[in-house]
Amino acid sequence: MEPLCTGHYIAETDLTAHPARAERSFGANDWKRLRSRRARYDPEGLFHTCLAP
Q: Which of 45, 47, 53 is nearest to 22 (CA)?
């Protein structure tokens, strides 16, 4: 199904299968907002996240 997909449902995707899967689970603006929040509140990457790298 990968060639036919336009995104992923975050709770049902294997985020370790490909780095872009987490990003494709959100809209572009939402992804940027999540990344900026992480940079602000966890700049050292202390907590595990699907927002890496």
A: 53
